[in-house]
Every structure is written in structure tokens, then in C-alpha cells.
Amino acid sequence: MPIPPGAPPSAMPNGHDVAEQYARQCQEEGREPVAEFVQLLAGPGQRTCSVPRRSPPLTDVDLAILCGYLQGNRSCEELELEGNGLAEAAAAHIATVLAENPVLKCLRLGENLLRDEGVLLLCAAMHKNTSVLQLDLRCNQLGPNGGRAVAQMLQMNNSLTDLNLQKNGLSDDSCVALSKALRTNPSLTALNVRFNDVGDTGALAFADLLRVNDMLSSLDLGGNRIQQKGGQAIFDALQGNSTLLKLNLRSNQITAEACRALEGSLARNGVLAELYLGFNAIQEQGVVCVAAGLQSNVGLRKLDLQGIPVGRPGMEAVGAALKHNAHLRSLIVQMEEDNRDAGLALASGLRHNTALTDLVL
């Protein structure tokens, strides 16, 4: 039988005995033992149990047995169950681990089928969990109720630092709820809502968050549908933000007009270290604005402008920025094809720059 939660060390059998118990229970249930879990149980020093994309996938019975042992396990710090088609029943078993296990630090459940029902169960268990620091729920087909459940969890949980909600179809309403929750959350430092359905309304909510939140250091909003209004609001918010180190806005619909706000923010913000703007609609004029702000910026180390064709005027602006900026280390910029004048303009700036180590054209 599984080790009961809270059992004293003297009551715990050695690792090989526990692994044998697990194997016998699997046999009784007509299931094959999961080899990775046998290794975890047999070796007390094992800290990770990784069972991604198993063939055949894990079943609810597999999870019921596995989670029964994990409740009392005191060595596993990272559990990875990606790509196993896990749904609501599996989430119920995992929730028991979150309620009983005080050592699990990282839970990766991406690419499953948890949907709203499963996420509601997990988030309810996370309300009181104080050990899990990283939670990966990407690609789980969350709906509005799932988004609200995550937001409510963030209002109650004071230990989670990294949350991945990528590819879940989250709407503006969900993002408004998330941003409100993060106004008072004291722990989350990294939020990934890439490839969702975030528009200007969601972006405005995150902009308001950046004005008051002093914990978030990484925000990924790439692959959404943010346009001028949302982009401008986020860029404006950067002026007074002193904690965000990484901002990803790739593959949105942000325009050149929004980049005028970014010009001023880059001149004033000395904290942001990585900025990803590739594949937006900022065009060459937007690149000129970014380059103007870059001239006096002292914080940025990596700038991504991929997928935005730049001619001579834009490259002259980038070259001028590189003459004055001694801090940027990595630059991705797309020069117009066969534009010799643009290349010469960039080369002029590079001759005076000794800081840049990585240039992708």
C-alpha cells in the first residue's frame, strides 16, 4: 500500500520495498508499472519523475496508483506528465498530491486535456499549497471558467513563482482577471500567456498591472492580437516599471504609432533587459522610434526586430543608436533585401560599437 502522508521516518520502508509494493499493486490492477516511477521510488535521492508523451499514454488507473504513492513521497521535487491526454479524473488524483505533498516544487502538465473541469480541481488544491513554485498548464484547452479559476488561485497562493498558460485560448476577460489577481500576489515573477486570444483590452489590463506590480520580471504576450492601443499602453507603463526584465510581444499587430511611446520609455527605463518585437506591424518608422530610444538606454541587452523589413532610413537610425549605446549585446533586425545603402548605414554604426556580440540580419 502507498506510504500514508505524514508517516514518521521509522515507519517508512526502504526505497526498493516501496518500489516492489508499487509493482505488485500495478499487477493487481492489471497495469504495467511505470518504469520512471519505479526508479523514483527505488532511489530515495531521485528528485525528478519525468513521464512525457508516454506510449501508450498514462491512464486514470495509472495516475490513481502513482499519486497514491506521491502523497507520502518526500523526495520527488519535479513531476512531468506532459502529453498524456490527462483529463478531469487524472486532475483529481494530482490534486490529492498537491494537498498532501510538501516537497513538490515543479509540476508540468502541458499538452493534456484538463480543460476547465480539471483546472478547477488543480487550482482548488493550489489555494493552500506552499511548495509548488513552477506550474505548467500550457495547451490544456482552458475556457472562461478555467481562466477565472487560475486567477482566483493567484489571489490565494503566495508561493508560486512561474506560471505557463500558453496556448489555452484565454480571452481578454481571463487576462483582466489574471492582472487583477496579480496586483496583490506577492510571489509570481514569470507569466506566459503566449498564443492565446489577448487583444487590446487584455493588454490594457496588463499595462495597468505593470504600473503597480513590483514582482513580475518576465511577461510573455507573444502570438496574440494586440494592436496600437494595447501596445502603446504597455510601452507607456514601462516608464515607471522597475522590475520587468523580459517582455515578449512578438507576432502581434502592434503599429508604428505605438512605438512612439516606446521611444520615451526606453530612454527612461534602465531595467528591461530583453525586448521581443519581431513580426509586428511597426514597419520601418517604428524601428526608427525604437532606435531613437535605444540611443540613451542603459538596460537593454537583447532586442528582437525580426520580420520587419528595414531600409536605409531605418538602418541609419539603428546605426546611430549603436554608435551611442554601449550596453546592447544581441540584435535581430531584418534589412531590406539587396539594399546596399541600408547595409552601409548599419556598418557605419557598427564600426563605433564594441559591445554588440550577436547580430542577426
From TrEMBL:
- Statement: the UniProt record of this protein carries the keyword Nucleotide-binding: no
**UniProt-listed InterPro entries:** Leu-rich_rpt (IPR001611), LRR_dom_sf (IPR032675), RanGap (IPR027038)
Q: Which GO terms describe its biological process?
A: nucleocytoplasmic transport
Q: Which GO terms describe its cellular component?
A: cytosol; nucleus; perinuclear region of cytoplasm
Q: Which Pfam families match?
A: LRR_6
Which molecular function term from Gene Ontology is one that the record holds?
small GTPase binding
Tell me where on the tree of life, at the top rank, the source sits.
Answer: Eukaryota
Keywords tagged on the record: GTPase activation, Leucine-rich repeat, Repeat
Which Gene3D superfamilies does the record match to this protein?
Ribonuclease Inhibitor
**Name of this chain's protein:** Uncharacterized protein
Q: Which organism is it from?
A: Eutreptiella gymnastica
